[in-house]
Amino acid sequence: MIRDFEKYTQKLLRDGSAAADSIRLYRLDDTVVASREDEWLGVFSEVFEGLNIAALLFARPSLPFADLLVARAASGADRLLPKDSETRLFLHDIPFIRRSEWEDGNTRALVPLLISGLRRRKAVLLEGHGIVATGGLTVEQAYISFSSVFHATFVKYLLDLLYEGFRLPSEEAAFDDFMDAWMRPVDAAGLEFEDYPAGREAVLWELCRVGRYTVEKGLVDSFFGNISVFDGKTIFISETASSLDELEGHIVPVEMDGSSTAGLSASSELPVHSAVYASTGCRAVLHGHPKFSVIMSMYCREECEIEDCTRNCNRKRYACGVPVVTGETGAGGLAKTVPPAVMESGACIAYGHGVFSVGRTGLREAFMKMVEVENVCRREYSRLIR
């Protein structure tokens, strides 16, 4: 248990998603065990009693975007409605509790509000204090929920700024601080790759190494995205729900001819990878969720009546010169739109979802293409916002 506390605290710090002095982890054993003793233990012990959960994470995001979104929300609103894929698939919406609803010196008044919100969703924003995220069985699940909220609020706030500009007195100064600290290009200098890895062990090693690179460079939160290599017969692909920075033992060999059932445990994006290999002759596919690529894929000034752009937009669009495709995960959607798009330029951005990039000889080209896409999207965002 203590090892889990340390592991996920370090992941939050590596991701840059949580303020170091704010991270609190709780696990239900016979009683609620906390990673640190503080004034919140009594509150969250009562929350555990009111919910069927085993773990909880409470931390203040490293950026003020979640609080700014709450402050910008309409009077009477009680949830945020981001439209990125992680929200659509895992969160649906993000409930929030305004500071004015409870902050009168009595934190016990917060308990029923937290229980109500966390019965509906896996995480709740607590204005001025942070994100409360739960895990039904593990600390890992609470970490995933926190990461999903951090990603969703990051994308929504910066996208809203492009459409609406600054609306609060404190926003512009906070945004300038963010730009100074976060808007450096992704630097891939010094990374090592092996093109045409020969043999099963070499393929597995390369997948694990490049999976770690993808997380360490901020191109995906560790539990999202997927990666594969094709040797002409077998697709070696990350397992469903695996962490890209911990792929050892979580890579699935899937025969291209469908002769095995191994694909049942493979990433849900296996149909996309299979379709790319069948139509392009590439040897590697990488899928990540670099934040500015996601933001720029959703930025569109065209007037139309389409309500669900993720599935129903049939316009040929580009973000920073990169094709933007639509479609749901699986054989019926992205598996049809991604292959022709990556044949065009080596990469594409799935609307609100992330980048698919390919390599003809191995993962080096796929990784560097994703870095290139994210960096050009960062530059374009900076140009537009200024």
Give a nutshell description of this structure.
The strands form two sheets. Strands 10-9-8-11-15-14-13-12 form an eight-stranded mixed sheet, sandwiched between helices. It is an alpha+beta fold.
Description:
Helices cover 42% and strands 17% of the residues. The chain is built from 13 helices and 15 strands. The chain has helices at residues 2-15, 41-50, 65-72, 85-91, 111-120, 139-164, 171-182, 200-216, 270-280, 291-298, 309-312, 334-345, 363-385; strands at residues 24-28, 32-34, 55-59, 79-80, 94-97, 123-126, 130-135, 226-230, 234-238, 251-255, 284-288, 317-319, 322-325, 347-350, 354-359. The strands form two sheets. Strands 10-9-8-11-15-14-13-12 form an eight-stranded mixed sheet, sandwiched between helices. It has a seven-stranded mixed sheet with strand order 2-1-3-7-6-5-4, with helices on both faces. The radius of gyration is 21 Å and the shape is globular. The mean pLDDT is 91.
Please give a handful of descriptors for the protein shown.
13 helices; eight-stranded mixed β-sheet
How would you summarize the topology of this molecule?
Layout: H1 2-15, E1 24-28, E2 32-34, H2 41-50, E3 55-59, H3 65-72, E4 79-80, H4 85-91, E5 94-97, H5 111-120, E6 123-126, E7 130-135, H6 139-164, H7 171-182, H8 200-216, E8 226-230, E9 234-238, E10 251-255, H9 270-280, E11 284-288, H10 291-298, H11 309-312, E12 317-319, E13 322-325, H12 334-345, E14 347-350, E15 354-359, H13 363-385
Parallel strand pairs: 5-6, 13-14
Antiparallel strand pairs: 1-2, 1-3, 3-7, 4-5, 6-7, 8-9, 8-11, 9-10, 11-15, 12-13, 14-15
Helix pairs in contact: 1-6, 2-5, 3-6, 4-6, 6-10, 9-12, 10-13
